Amino acid sequence: xxxxxxxxxxxxxxxxxxxxxxxxxxxxxxxxxxxxxxxxxxxxxxxxxxxxxxxxxxxxxxxxxxxxxxxxxxxxxxxxxxxxxxxxxxxxxxxxxxxxxxxxxxxxxxxxxxxxxxxxxxxxxxxxxxxxxxxxxxxxxxxxxxxxxxxxxxxxxxxxxxxxxxxxxxxxxxxxxxxxxxxxxxxxxxxxxxxxxxxxxxxxxxxxxxxxxxxxxxxxxxxxxxxxxxxxxxxxxxxxxxxxxxxxxxxxxxxxxxxxxxxxxxxxxxxxxxxxxxxxxxxxxxxxxxxxxxxxxxxxxxxxxxxxxxxxxxxxxxxxxxxxxxxxxxxxxxxxxxxxxxxxxxxx
Length: 348
Ligand SMILES: [Mg+2]
Fold this sequence. Notes:
Blueprint: H1 12-25, E1 35-37, E2 45-46, E3 52-61, H2 73-89, E4 94-104, H3 110-127, E5 130-138, E6 143-153, E7 169-173, H4 178-195, H5 207-214, H6 220-229, E8 235-239, H7 243-254, E9 256-261, H8 269-277, H9 282-288, E10 294-299, H10 304-307, E11 313-321, E12 326-329, E13 335-337
Parallel strand pairs: 4-5, 9-12
Antiparallel strand pairs: 1-2, 3-6, 4-6, 7-10, 7-11, 8-10, 9-11, 12-13
Helix pairs in contact: 2-3, 4-5
The protein binds magnesium ion.
């Protein structure tokens, strides 16, 4: 997995830009009824009746956001789509269309770009969204990938960061910190590989963590669950930068405080084991790690019965009056102030 892949190489210049676009878009099948026109005109045409549209975009740059020495191109394509879909779901909206833009240097042959798009299309098909446009161009060095996602929902269903009330429950989906620890494993193996390229690492014990890093899944299922349970969170955000800063975003936008209970934070056993191996504190990792792509939301207490006992959800705390601030309550019952970036264990 860490070895760079050998491609039979077809140079991109053989196809030209239009040839490349035709090649990459030839198998698109549109499935969303809101897509009136996809690829093939000057612009895509979308139609959504009586609903509001949500739009989000993300730019990923080689060497800044991803490292191709351990990130296979197919995974990169898949993950880039997930990052965007996760933001659409964080608005409690259904994702429906994507545009894909890439800039590539001549270091990448056609076969490498095909693999990137294989990941993009796998994600789009799995989540039922249409690829309706984009752009390809050359770059002087490296790979740059920008994805825009469109979604929609009726106005009453859209959830902002700003709706939390002081007595609401604070709830998170899935488990946290695994993607960050997966990255630590991959970074470590990359260093081992540099010293000894013959070394074949046994990554089996870390499979879950590496999968969370390389192939995250956006929580479309949770949005569908909300609909089925007939609940609408009061505020929501996706966990891309670590729990601490995401809680702070909700507090700031909603003008409330929060109490987060350390003992409630959901952790996978594999994540706990690897934290011990790396001598890292698992709570610190969940607070300041990142890339979990879970949903963090607040819920009116009257809706507690709907989520009670459901393994997708963990109540990790509750909101408070703004003047009380945002704090972590440790297992030892200490109160520690949460910070925008990570947490400061020396305060109070
Ligand atoms: Mg987000």
